[in-house]
Structures are given as structure tokens and as C-alpha cells.
Amino acid sequence: MSNATSRRNVGRRLVRLDGAPKVRGEAAYLGDRDVPGLLHGAVLRSPHPHALIRRLDTRRASAMPGVRAVITAADVPETRYGIYIKDATAFARDRTHFAGEAVAAVAADTVEAARAAVAAIEVDYEPLPGVFDPEAALRDDAPLVHPEWEQYEAAAILVRRGNRSTRGIIRHGNVEEGFAKSFRIFEHRFTTSKVHAGYTEPRGSIGFWHDDGSCTVWSSTQLPFAVQELLADAVGLPPAKVRVVATTLGGGFGGKLAIGVEHHAVLLARAAKAPVKVVSTVEEELTSALPRQPAIVDIKVGVDRDGLILAKQGRILLDTGAFSGSGPQTASSCTNTLHGPYNIPNVLLEGVSVYTNNMNTGAFRAPSGPIGNFASESQMDIIADSLGIDPLELRLRNIFHDGDKGPSGATLAAVGLEECLRRAADAIGWNDRKPANGRGKGIACGWWMTTGMTSEVDVTLYRDGHVLMNSGAVEIGTGALTGAAQVLADGLGVEAERVTVIGGDTGASPFDYGAQGSRTAFCVGNACRDAAVEMRKALAAVAAPRLGVAPDAIELRDGAVHGGGQSLPFATLVGADGLKVRGTFTAPAVPHDASRLENHQSPAWHAPSFHAHAVDLSVDEDTGDVTVHRYVVAQDVGFAINPTYVEGQIEGGAVQGIGQALFEEIVSRDGIVQNPNLTDYKMPTMQDVPVIETILVQHPTAHGPAGAKGVGEPPCIEPPATIANAIAVATSARVQTLPITAERICAARGQIER
Ligand code: MOS
After folding, report:
1. Domains of the chain from N-terminus onward
2. Is the CB of 225 under 6 A from ligand 1?
3. Which of 163, 341, 690, 751 could serve as 746's disulfide partner, Cβ 3.0–4.6 Å?
4. What is the position in ligand 1's atom list of the atom closest to the CA of 365?
5. Using one digit for the tens of pLDDT, what is the confidence trace for 49-74?
6. How many Å apart are CA 223 and CA 230, to the nearest integer?
7. Which atom of ligand 1 is nearest to the CA of 197?
8. Torsion sign over Cα 119, 121, 126, 128
9. How far apart are the first and last CA of the chain?
10. Which helix (H) or strand (E) holds 581?
């Protein structure tokens, strides 16, 4: 690409374009929205994890004051939806699969009236035996969560069998030979918990049903285009009749990739002939949202005398709960996280997703990242201790460098991992790992993908040099679209403050794969780069002849086209309706060795990022309470398009990771959530975390805008292992289960029995 553009915007700490209305409280989130005649919906949910519905009577509820519609499975099309497997329905039909599954819904004049009517719906359930242990669910004699699983439409790559929704494998070399040559072999099991994405805005939606049989939904979603597809299936319409408009979003973190309340809002709107708002309650968020899958990780590693890894074998078993959700894809990506950022000649890694009658699950920031990393990086410290090698040194001996091949055989470039490790270690004061009794420092490292796929932007340049950027991606709170606007502004030679970003509307925005997978600044930014090239061409076609220069010789700067020592302001080249172009980016496939993969959906990572975390903490001698004194993240971000928001992502992600490490778990007993509130489900507050110290490492990727890699997901990957490793230094207790509660630390120290 010719590059006659100035580089004034990228790298700047520009104030985010969406910031002012948010801090002033003016931005309208879904819950703030109102329309004439708006009704309010509430959902009846199954109290039983597995039961037959023998009788369902809505007559009493329908007759209650203010009630406008009551609907059940009998009132809606018999269709199924799902991202990889169409296994879900809007309402349970005859059978419930988890405690929390929707059974009926009510639209009423007020939320209170809707809830009162929900309570008046009569249901007779016949409880059935459930399966709650993912290992038990894999056995041939396990009760089937979906007896009709074979009839479900599913992605062709999946290998389903009974309760197993798929598995993905990466295999190369020969692990048996690797183990045979090993000086020592280490085998461990780690388990991780079900954690909620913790967005500040609950999932919400307003559904509209139109006279022509189409629908519109306003949704607090990360992915309007994915919701369009899922919703079309869930309500039995072709996608063309479904319009999804994303509203100002109060965080997503992966928990808002799929539909949650949209189908209920739309189906209620159809039945009530009025718009209906449905917003999740906190209890619904913690019993029927889409938290991260809990997992069981088995891992076996063989090393030589110097600690070089010779073979690695392992399996991550993901309990997706009653529906597969994102699990079938995570079952592939998890092999990469379990592999870790190391050169390993012999590898056999498997990810398995399995149905149980537990609460359903979905994606959460770096799906599988903290799961695989907790296991792999905890074990690295166990190996280091056992061989008498410093854990930092053990990592440095094994890590990826430029030109190495990843697990699927893809050649790695722009690998800033050694710099991350060294700088994180220096910052935490690694030469003094155990400064006092009960105090210790830990380190862990990892890698993560930048998701590719397609992004398009429609860009209009106006006569006054202002720019309108319409993107189907949603600003989920990261600032990523401000970053993309900075890239666009550089390409057009204007100040980024002149760019207005709109979009997130499937009816009015060009396609975008969406704000997920750390891809927004990368992919939308690349589409912006393309749009700038197109705009340059369009301007050159008019301006170059007038300037008497070749089209390639023009330069865009300061709201004008320059060339041959003269300049033409945009106003003289652009009509009153502006000049419109479309920019497109589709990430190219990453070359890899397909013979290493079986049923794998995440074969080679696009522009992977690399990172190292370090912590200094204390553990109370009596109570096992952990105090985190300092927390350092060194992350190779490629290039920081806007350092302020890159740092913000790292700080927030690390805090979310500390929550997963120490506090958070949706506790289920026999399929019933025990802590469906934010008192007993404990997320970290400012009291629980120190200032997160960020170190931006910048090894630019050739594929990203200005060299940027995906930033958003990685920082929540390493905290569990980093903290587990520091606790082991501080106390000699190794906890292999998340979260690492005070109770588990005391049990590992032998102070209490569990
Ligand atoms: Mo993410 S878990 O791709 O928002």
C-alpha cells in the first residue's frame, strides 16, 4: 500500500470518542430506553435441573391485572438455535435441561405485574435423574441431557456422541517416544470454576414486532450480526426479517455474544402486539446467563535434565452445562492455551466439551485462556522447583522466539515474549522471590490469538473535513473503535476528533464479525486502513488531474489534497452529500500443518500476542487470606494505537483475572446454583486489588494496523497461575483448584481438612 499518509493519530492518548456522554451519564443504555406503549417482560424458569413438564397452566397468570401476554413453548415456533449446535429452544418443551431454563414468559404493564404473573403460572414437574459431573457425563451409561441429540443440526467439523458435543485435537511428534526419553515426567490435574463475565449492565433487550411479520430488536449485545442469525432461528424468521440494533453497551466480556433475552422480548412483542423490554435480574445472570465453562484439566509433561520440555499430553474437559453454547469452539482453542508459548517436539492435546444438567455456559474473555494457562503455568513452577531451576529461567529455556513454529505448525513472528518475561521479572524484583515468611512472588506467561474474520466500514468524507464512520462492530467499552478511528484519521490526513462513529445496526451498517476475540481495533482498524486507500483513490481521481500529478503522488493532509506544490481543500472536491467509500478487511488464513489437527476449529492463531505477569503477595499465616501487594503485566501489544485504553484493557483484564484466581465461582450442588447473588458470588472491588502496573511491549505484527495485535482478552489469562505460583512460594502450599480461596490454602497447608 502506498503510504503518503501522516502518522499523527495512532500512538496518541486521544480521549475516547464515546467517552463524554458516558461520563456525563447521558449515554442511553438498554435499561434507560423507553418507547410509547412499552411493556415489560419477565421469565419463568425451571427450578429443576432435569424434569419432565407434566402440566403447564397459564390461565390464572393471564387473568392478572396488567398482564398483556403469557407465552410458553406451545405458543412459539418449534425451532432450535445455537452457535455450533442448534440444541436450544426459546422455552423448554416437555423437558427441562437445567435449573434456570426458560419455561414461560409474561408481558405486562409493569415489571412488578409481569413478575407477579410469572409466580402465578402453574407447572407440574416430574424430576428426572440428572448428570452433573462432566466425567460421569462421558460414560456410556450416563443419562442423556439431549436424548434427541442426533437430530440436531450441527457444524460439520464436530464429532458428537451422546453427551459429548465435540472434541478437538492437536497432535505432532510422538508423545510416547518423548516420555520415554524424558528425565522426569510430571502428571497433574487442575480444576477451574464457572465464572460470570461480570459486565456492569445486565443483558437487556426491547423487542418490536412489525405488521409485515418482521421484527426489530434493540439489544445490549457485542455481536448484532450473530444475534440476528441466532434470533432468526429462535423465533422462526428468515434473517432478512430480523433487524438487530446494538445499544450503548455496559461491557460484554464474551457474555453477550449469543442471545439471552432477545428472543423472549421479540416473542412477547408478537403476542402482546406492543414493544416489550426484558432485562435480566442479578439472579438470572447467575443462574441462566452464559458464564465461562468450568473445567477439569489433566496434563502430563516430560522434561530433560535441563528442563527442556520433550513431550506434553493433556486434556481439557469443559462442562458446557445443558447447552453447548460456545463450548464446541472452546474445545479447540483450549488445546493452544494448554500447549502454552513453548517449543515442544511431541504433543498430544485434546479439548472436549460435554453436556451436563448444570447451568449453561458460553464465552468469557479469552475462552479457555485462564483454564489452560492455570494448569500449564502452575505445572511449570512445579517442574522448576522439582528440578531446582528458577521458574523464570525454566520458561526462558523453553519459550517461543521469532521463526519458531506453534503447535499447529504455523510460523511465529513478532514474538515479544522474552522481553515480556524479563521486564515483568525486573519490575517485580525477581531476584528476591521470598522477601519474608508468608510472602512470595510469582510469574507466569502465555499467548493468545487475535481473531480474524471480516470487518467492513462505510466511510463518508464531508466537505468540511469531518468524517462519518459506520461500523457493524459495537463499542463494548474497550475504546477499540476510537483506535480504529485513529487509524482512519491518519489515512485521511485529518484529526481523529473529526471522526464520528456510528453503527451496530444490522439494517444500516456493513457487516462486522463483531466485538469479540480481541479483534475490534485490529480488524476494524485494518478495514479503516482499506477505506482510507479507497478514499485516496476516489479523491485522486478528481484531484490529480487538477493538480497535474499522477494519482499516486497525492497526499492527504489538513483537510486537503496536496500534490505538485499545490493543494485542493476537500470542499472543492467533495459534493454536499460527501464522498463515500467502503473499507473491507478479511483476515487471510494462517498457513499451518493441517495433518496436526483433528476436528479442530482454531487451528492457527492470527497475529498472536504474548504476555507475562508477575505478582508480589502475602498469605495470612492463620486465616489463609491473600493480600496482593503489587501486580505487574508486561504485554506484547504489537503497537499501542492508543496507550491509555490499551493500559485500561490490561488493568481491567488483570483485575478480572485476579477475581478468577481468588474469589469467583458459581457454586452448583446437583445442578442448583448456591450463590445467585453478588454478596455470595464475590467479584473483586478496589479493596481487593492493587494498582495494576502495565508495561507495554511492542513487537509490531506485519498484519495489524500500525502493527497492533489484539489486546483485550489476554490480560485475564495469566492471573490465576501467577497468583497460584506466588502462593506456593509464600506458603509452600500448592492449590490446584480455582478459585484459590483462603479455605483451600488452609487445606493445602494441612491446617484444616476438606
Ligand atoms: Mo470474547 S469471549 O470473544 O468477547
Report:
1. 19-28+452-586 (3.30.365.10), 33-128+203-279 (3.90.1170.50), 295-451+593-748 (3.30.365.10)
2. no
3. 751
4. 2
5. 999 999 999 999 999 999 999 999 99
6. 11
7. 2
8. negative
9. 63
10. strand 579-586
